Structure formats: C-alpha cells, structure tokens
Amino acid sequence: GLVNTRAMFAQAMEEQFAVPAYNFNNMEQLQAIVTGCVQSASPLILQVSGSARKYIGTAFLPHMARAAVDLAEELGRPIPIALHLDHGGSAELAKECVDSGFSSVMIDASHESFQENIRITREVVAYAHDHGVSVESELGVLAGIEDEVSAEHSSYTRPQEVEEFLNATGVDSLAISIGTSHGAYKFRLKPGEQPPPLRFDILDEIERRVPGFPIVLHGASSVLPEYVALVNRYGGKMENAAGIPEEQLRRAAASAVCKINIDSDGRLAMTAIIRKVFAEKPGEFDPRKYLGPARDALIELIVHKNTEVLGSAGRV
Ligand code: G3H
Ligand code: 13P
Ligand code: NA
Ligand code: ZN
Question: Domain of life here (predicted)?
Fold first, then answer.
C-alpha cells in the first residue's frame, strides 16, 4: 500500500539524498514515473495538485494510486510510494484528501500572514496526524504561478521564523523559498548568461537552526535545453526557457533537502517527443504511437534524475 513520507525522509536525511516528488495528471505519466523509479530502485512521492485532482477526477484517483503500487510489484520491485497533495490551497481540501486515501498532504498558506499560516497549518496537522498522514507546509513565497497561489516575486524564507513555525504547527516537512520558482521560465537570462545560484546561505542558516528537519524544494525543474530545442525544432515556441542547473540540485539533495519537486521537466520531455512524432509522421493518429514514445522519454528522464541528480537511485 501507500506509505507516508516519514521513513523516506528519515532515510534521505541519514543518507544525504532527496526523494523525488513527481507530478502526474494521466496514465502515461503515472506509468512512466513508477517504471522509472522501479528501474532505478528509488522511493517515490507521487503528487497531484488541486487542479490535477479535478482533472483526473475522484473516481479515478484512488485507483490510479493503487495501480501505481501494483505496477511496482508487477515490475518485480516494490518501492515505497506516497500519494501527496501538492499545494493544498485550503484546510478543507487537505482534509478531503486525507479522507480519500492520500498518505501525505501539503497545506500551502504561505501567501497568508505568519500567524494565519500557523493557524491553518495546525488545523491540517491535527487532522492528518490523526489519520497517519504526513504534512508539508511552506514558509516564504516562490516567484511565478503556483496552483491557487500566485506571487509576482519571491520572498525568501526568513530563517528566524522557522523554529517558531515548526514548534507551533508540528509539520513533518517545510518547503522553503531560496530562489527556485515554478514553470519553464524561471529566469530572464541574456544569451550565454548563467542563472543566479540558489541562496544556500539561507538553507544553511535554516539547517543550523533546525538540524535534521526535512526541507522541501519546489520549482526544481532544470528545463533541459535538449528538450526545449526539440520543442522549438518541431513547431513549438518556447523562448528564453530556463531552469535550475543540475549541479545546484545535487548540492541541495546532499543537504537537509529531503524532497525535490519536479513537474515541468516531465511535461517538457513528453511534449518534445509528441511534437517530434507529429512532425515526422504526420499521418499517425493512434494515440499509442505518440503517447508511447513520450512515456518512454519520461522513463528515461526519471531514471536520469534519480541516478544523476537526486541520488535517490539504489536506495530501496
Ligand atoms: O506547482 C504546481 C505544479 O507544477 C502543478 O501545477 O496546477 O498545473 O497541476 P498544475
Ligand atoms: P517545476 O515547475 O520546476 O517542475 O516545479 C514543480 C513543483 O514545485 C510542484 O509543486
Ligand atoms: Na537531502
Ligand atoms: Zn510547487
């Protein structure tokens, strides 16, 4: 069955890697994520946003989670799998997800005042912990568009607020803002320019204040140039797309960061391959002929992330 994130994070902290949290919306993404994690023997956090939950529908979602667990077994290597609500926009939604079989939820009240964030988070923690479900919360705001949460600019997490927040809420993990953001356009860069480094000084200060506490990094896609190039080559238009360099994520994974969220990179890989098939075989209209290769590309991407970036491969 599904597991909560507690044992995963304890292992990640101890062994200095990060557990991958991949978003999914459909069957092919789910199959690819599970297959990639089984092939690389990695623990897995499967996450759905509020809007992804609506897209999938409540009739399907519990069965898809169950199918994920069954698929890993069928492939010959059961791996720990958590089903996590990503960016829960209200306590009501988070509780609904606890009731419908999620093993982990995020309550994202990071756009509220500090005290209001504490109040809402506490409410979710009390309910979720009663049901054995782990809770992630967020302090600080990421730039860009989050699901049901939007902010023009980042405001970095203030390390001096972290200890009080953790004590007051009892959350199991904390998402922080140190320079990542959501989507495929994380930085406006001039040609040849490197993105600014993440604020590891803030992360270090947080670790100093709450040693051993699991930290979460959202907005951690690398927006790999080879996929952007494929999209643009085959009729797409993604100008100035940019993500977090893998080297920065390797460094984060070796720290107290225990969960790294990746959505955009998977979307990009699938879209690139679908565009390629459409361009090269314009007569093709069997969905399996383009969703199949897209699924294969996503498996490869997942294995790459787990093996080369997060260090979660071989931990099961
Ligand atoms: O952080 C948000 C995730 O990438 C999911 O976004 O609301 O488009 O499903 P979504
Ligand atoms: P990316 O858009 O960088 O993939 O971030 C995903 C995320 O943080 C989901 O919560
Ligand atoms: Na880590
Ligand atoms: Zn996020």
Answer: Bacteria
Atom of ligand 1 nearest to the CA of 148: 7
CB distance 252 to 260 below 8 Å? yes
**Which amino acid appears at position 135 of this protein?**
V
Strand blocks (E) in the chain: 19-23, 44-49, 81-88, 104-107, 134-139, 144-146, 149-151, 173-176, 215-217, 257-262
ipTM above 0.90, yes or no: yes
Determine whether 86 is an active site residue. Answer: yes
The answer to whether the CB of 314 falls within 8 A of the CB of 41 is yes
Predicted confidence (pLDDT) per residue in 41-78, tens digit: 999 999 999 999 999 999 999 999 999 999 999 999 99
DSSP class of residue 185 equals B
How far does residue 282's CA lie from ligand 1's centre (Å)? 30
Centroid of ligand 4 to alpha carbon of 185 (angstroms): 14
Q: Could you tell which of 24, 45, 55, 87 is best to mutate to test the pocket of ligand 1, judged by most ligand atoms within 8 Å of the CB?
A: 87
200, 178 Cβ separation under 8 angstroms: yes
Please tell me if the CB atom of residue 264 comes closer than 6 angstroms to any atom of ligand 2.
yes
**Which uninterrupted H or E stretch holds 230?**
helix 225-233
Say whether 131 counts as a known binding-site residue: no
Q: How far apart are CA 67 and CA 75, in angstroms?
A: 12
How do residues 213-246 score in pLDDT, each as one tens digit? 999 999 999 999 999 999 999 999 999 999 999 9
Domain 6-310 is found in CATH 3.40.190.10: no
CA 137 to CA 135: how far, in whole Å?
Answer: 7
Segment (H or E) for 51: helix 50-56
The count of C-alpha atoms lying within 13 angstroms of the C-alpha of 51, restricted to the half-sphere facing its C-beta, is: 4
Task: Assign 61 to helix, strand or coil.
Answer: helix
